[in-house]
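Sanity check

After download, print the first record. It should look like this:
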Amino acid sequence: QLVAYEVKRMRAEEGNKQKVLRHIKELAEKLYKNENPYPAVTMHKVQKPTEGCHLRLHQKPFPRLDEGTVQWIIDQATAKLQTAPPAVRAEKKCMVPSGPPMAAIMERNGNALANSARRLEVVRNCITYVFENKMLEAKKLFPAVLRAMKGRAARHCLTQELNLHVQQNRAVLDHQQFDFVIRMMNCCLQDCTAMDEHGIAAALLPLVTAFCRKLGPGITQFAYSCVQEHV
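Expected structure tokens:
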């Protein structure tokens, strides 16, 4: 029904958080009523005797109950319950029109995918420029790369690209390359969430022990010394 009737309304509400929240609340109520169609059964309250009622005169004694009559009433009620149909709400079947084509709804998602592909391309290009020592081109793309690190796909792409360069024995970097790689790793780890701990952060672990630079004869600095403060 949402797909069939509500697409225009949802598009109109996109910029207005209050309207979106109201719409979500309406949906939530419908879903709740669908799952809980029967209202709670109200319990009968037995009234307590009033204060001082035992002091009243002319009290009628409580009548003696006839055991046979009570049993007969119980049996009648039990028989009724057994023959009663189960209390299930009859489902109303209805035809819902197909609504607008899915392409109309997926337009924005398509744009998002295109944007995502562009971001990954920027990350790949920047890393290539760094390892080819084209630092001017790398600097131009660098702000866009840092922004892209907000997305998990870009963080994953970074680990894959760096891993490829390690496999090509290109782990020993000069000072400028080292600085670029460290800044990307730091930004990637900064934007990682708990969900990334066993994915992206784990994929970076072998990389931070591979990438290094020579500080002097016999002195090597590895990348982990610059990124080990992250949780």
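If your output differs, re-run the checksum step. Summary of this record's structure: Strands lie at 172-173, 212-216, 219-222.
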